[in-house]
Amino acid sequence: MKASNALWKETLAGRLAADLAQEIDAFELELELKRQGKLEDRILAETRLRRGVYGQRYDNGQRHDGEKVRRLEYPSGALTKGPNTLWDAPGMQRIKVPFGGLNPEQLETLAALAEEYADGVLHVTTRQDFQLHFVHLDDTPTLMRRLAAVGITTREACGNVVRNVTACPYAGVCAGEAFDVTPYARALSRFLLGHPDCQDFGRKFKPAFSGCRDEACGLTSMHDLGLIAVTRGGNGALQRGFEMYVGGGLGAVPHKAKLLEEFVAPEELLPTAQAIARVFARLGEKKNRNRARIKFLIKDLGIEKFRDLVREERATLAFDPRWHGYIAEALAGEEGPLNPPGPLRVPAGAVPYQRWAAANVRLQRQQGYAVATVALPLGDLTPRQARTLADLARRYTRGTVRTTVEQNIILRWVSTRDLPALYADLAALGLGEASAGTILDIVACPGTDTCKLGISSSRGLAGELRRRLAETALEMDEAVRSLHIKISGCFNSCGQHHIADLGFYGVSRKLAGYRVPHFQVVLGGEWSRNAAEFGLPIVAIPSKRVPDAVSRITRCFVAERRQGETFQAFVQRVGKARIKALLDDLTAAPADASERSFFRDWGDAREYSIEDIGVGECAGEVVTLVEFGLSAAEREVFEAQLALEQGRTPEAGQKAYGAMMTAAASVLRTELDPPPAEGDRIVTEFRERLFATEKFHDPFAGGKFAHYLFAAHAHAGEPRSAEAAHHLIEEAQLFVEAAHSYYNRLVVR
User: Which of 252, 392, 483, 517 lies 20 to 30 Å (CA to CA) from residue 423?
Assistant: First the structure.
């Protein structure tokens, strides 16, 4: 039986840092005021989000393999009260882990909390955090205190603040790094946490560190603040510093970060970050959340003007001793080994170990030591596994554990002579899979399992792809084995689909008269070089046919690639039109619409179709002019992609804008038939009939995407750079998706 909040508060008194104790006490008081009706919902929403407490969806209740999740006790009917059930029904708790660094005691605490307060699953996120699902709001103060007692905070794990500071998990042991970024990530995280200058943002702000330019471990290109370790000669010695980038982000429309400064000395790192925060807080959008990220401020101002503002702001800052003190303290703590190095002796016939070592082991720059990756299918591990991992970290290392952006866990400073024994222990725990960094190591967001914005089951699809790919893993071509698959349940890119070799994000389409879960296939992304390129969607495939799409694309790659050609180079050479043609027949409805499994998502027993399937339109489906128009709009978006691919940037921008106008005119037929043909009138009628009335709005941000139409029309005819055309194509695709969603709500039950 769980101990009461009061008992835990008394038990942990004196073990919490004073500031964290006060913060949790204040949150607990706010919960009590809410119970008494003395606190507004919107105030509680902001305060809980800033402490990492989210609402979640409850209508699925299925894990990716179809297994029912363990429900905790909550009031009868709590799952059916509508969208405002957070008080009665469990939600999600996000837990910050700066640079992914953990020790065994912290891992054991996380295991206990997952067991006692959640559904028995610890989930590693794509930003090195942990998430617990099905956590009651009443339990969160105790959960926060128990975490704080071992040095972990949930403060600012969500909200319009600085989120977790991520960093390369190999920092300090990588042979290719300029220097270890860990102390600087630790110092920046400590400095910005709760900082007064970081409390008035319009949206979130995500920093990331990388030790080099070439690898993907830090993903600095897709962050609001990206810092790459560099060195330069000066005064006869090598100086450390950072290339500083700003304004990156994925989301619905990804933006690549811009270079702010070529070299920022360590002593200037914290004050420059503070100056950026002050400029963002002062000038960033506050009212329109759709344009409130710093990437939009930089887009509006231009990087040169933004750079001038940051430099001016930095010059006004009064000296803060923490700028140097926090870094000095962080530099004082160095990692080291537990066991001495020794020769690696591989047992005879140890083929499973050899496969695991080839995929999951990376030699450190310190001779005789290695990093071992524990591959976590879909980022999940059980409390028992977490406790045993804590024991293994103590046995083989000094507790040097880190999470990764690929939703795995690594053990650092493992003596090479201990690797066979470590593998045997992991295999006995069910964590010996030889898949780290391979096509089997699929990244997926929670999707429809628990996320309120999920459209399609990302985890369900990931689980099915892993199962199928594992069946042929031993015979798989090495070029295919090294590909990365990333899946998001919606357009928001929490699964980072834009930077994958093969990316997918959930959408909905109508087939045979019914709503069917689909995924957009995204090609052209690049995982390496800190997420160097962002892909674009080429075609929407029914969820149940995505495994076939993966098979066709990879077979084509193996058959037609040139010697040494990467997947990105292959896609660019053969062209997206060629690959889309491989998949076009997969977009159709099944010949027999009574094949009911087609209308279910992966891992979900429910159907997306209505009970009387086969009755009405699907007997001989009528394709309306609206549907013809939306199909034409999708074609125009793809034509815009091809134009951009071929360097015809003005044409790409014009076609993307034209796709939006086609889609807008098409859905206007539901209100005004025939719709106007002239651009100004299309936008005016759309604004008055569908946007102002909120008919176009839906849970998947239809209202937000309408603004893309308005902005594109306002700037029609203006010259666009290749980057701007890329953004416009993304926006056009999202507007077309919103138009599909609007029309489906009218005609699909």
Answer: 483
Q: Kindly provide the residue ranges of all beta strands, DSSP E only, lying in 125-254, ordered along the sequence.
A: 130-135, 166-167, 207-210, 225-234, 237-246
pLDDT digits 0-9 by tens, 152-180: 999 999 989 999 999 999 999 999 999 99
φ/ψ (deg, to 5) at 144: -65, -40
**pLDDT surpassing 50 at residue 85:** no
Question: Under a CB-based contact definition with an 8 Å cutoff, are residues 274 and 197 in contact?
Answer: yes
Q: What span, in angstroms and rounded, lies between the C-alpha atoms of 444 and 440?
A: 12
Name the packing angle between helices 266-283 and 182-192 (round to 10°).
40
Q: How far apart are CA 335 and CA 332, in angstroms?
A: 10
- 281 part of a folded domain: yes
- Tell me whether residue 343 is in a domain: no
The answer to whether the predicted template modeling score (pTM) of the entire model surpasses 0.85 is yes
**Distance separating alpha carbons of residues 508 and 637, to the nearest angstrom:** 17
- Burial of 129 per CB tally in 10 Å (0-12, 13-18, 19+): buried
Euclidean distance between CA atoms 57 and 69, whole angstroms: 13
How many domains does one find in the chain?
A: 5
pLDDT digits (tens, 9 = 90+) for 543-571: 999 999 999 999 999 999 999 999 999 99
Same domain (yes/no): 209, 190? yes
Cα–Cα nearest to 211, from 176, 244, 187: 176
Would residue 728 count as lying in a domain? yes
